[in-house]
Amino acid sequence: MKEVPVKIQHNNEWIVVKMGIGEDRIVLPAPINKEIHFKTVADIAEKKNILIITVKTDTETVYKILSVEKVLQVLKKFILGSCNAYRLMAYFMSPAIRGGVMVKEAQWDKGSVVVVRSGIWFVSATKQICVPVNDVAAIELTKRDVQGKPTDVIKIDHLEQGEVSSSFVLCPLSTLQVLYNFLRDTTKSMDMKGTELDGVDQQVAMLVYSGMDSHAIENMLNIPHKQLDAIYDKILKLGLGEVVTIRREIQLTTKGVRYISDATKSQTN
Amino acid sequence: MGKILIVDDTLFMRTLLKNILFSGGHTIVGEAGDGDEGVAKYKELKPDLVTMDIVMPKLNGIEALKAIKALDPAARIVMCTAVGQEQMVKLAIKSGAKGYIIKPFQAPKVLEEVKNVLAS
Lengths: 269, 120
What we know:
The complex is a heterodimer of chains A (about 270) and B (about 120).
Chain A: E1 2-10, E2 13-21, E3 25-28, E4 34-37, E5 41-47, E6 50-56, E7 60-66, H1 69-82, E8 86-98, E9 101-102, E10 109-115, E11 119-124, E12 128-132, E13 136-146, E14 149-160, E15 163-170, H2 173-186, H3 199-210, H4 214-221, H5 225-237, H6 254-268
Antiparallel strand pairs in A: 1-2, 1-7, 2-3, 3-4, 5-6, 6-7, 8-9, 8-10, 8-15, 10-11, 11-12, 13-14, 14-15
Chain B: E1 3-7, H1 11-23, E2 27-32, H2 35-45, E3 49-53, H3 61-71, E4 77-82, H4 86-94, E5 99-103, H5 107-119
Parallel strand pairs in B: 1-2, 1-3, 3-4, 4-5
Helix pairs in contact in B: 2-3
């Protein structure tokens, strides 16, 4: 068993320990004194260089481990290979489309797709990509040209640093259908009827996505500020958007008008 | 920065693209609402780049692309397509399109693709 120094959160504090990494478990020495078998890991997520592991035995315990990328890569490889998850061998392409533009260097990787509680992991010899379930915008069974033949694939649209990316999974059709159903179930909380927004509302949502600000949207759709505000309220209420900036409009007081009048005079004199 | 012709049958998409491309410093030399008009405007305006919707009335985007390429083999055309039409994109690339953007799109990505195609 190899030992590596990591930081781990213990009693709300980060402490440095020499963690033992084996092929089926990790050993956390004193003051934690725990052995974590990978098959008891029910969830694994990553935030920057912190690995968040949920272990389920009789109770659930969350461990947060901070380390360098190299150590985390080894840990992820072992955990994703043995944890309690839906796992299948597949080819994947992630991301294949980013922000509406096909990724030019995208290629099929041979590896596995591991679905845990909080995310979908694409794992190969060189890649460990996680798509958090909360970031999944759409899942569909579709066809894609693979080696010149239209082939059944699953397309997963997901948010990646604020822009929509698409990833593809390729495996035998029967497995694909099972995976599709499983993914649909996992991401059911994000489903909507599709009738919540009317035509103008949808156009506003699309313009927001395209990066237009309120002023541009009002001009493009020729709608007054109050109407746009009402549409924003609807979008926010449905959980489809969030407020990032509140911009103010002001008018000058008498003092302000006098100030700029004086300033103009001094410029023209 | 380039002179761009936008070909799309929806006013909304034309306006959106116009705003995005204008914000990137490009000049919009013309707009067309179908493939026929797109080919005619190309002959008239000789733009540096065309953004071409695929599904359009009269002449569709692929046919319009072929017609423009027959007139000017060096024409730079970026196809705009909806999600799920990747097969059409492949056909467009085979027919001479230089790039593609998939709706819904984000401004920085559109500008990046247009910049790449203009530089090609």
